Request: fold
Amino acid sequence: RALKVGELGRVTLLARDPRGAPIPDVAATWISSDPAVATCSGGTVMGISPGSATIRVICGEKSAEVSVIVF
Reply:
């Protein structure tokens, strides 16, 4: 995912139960590896300054990551 400085992007979380059914309104924690480059709140990512960062979402014992490049 690439963003310009000041641009907003969206990262979508789709949690599933052990049978594969979607879990609506699941609680998740969003973390940026470098908040000086990109921040994330509730899946909305904002480009802050040029560089790269990893956005990580944690949901219970599971997690996922996406790389973000800001230019």
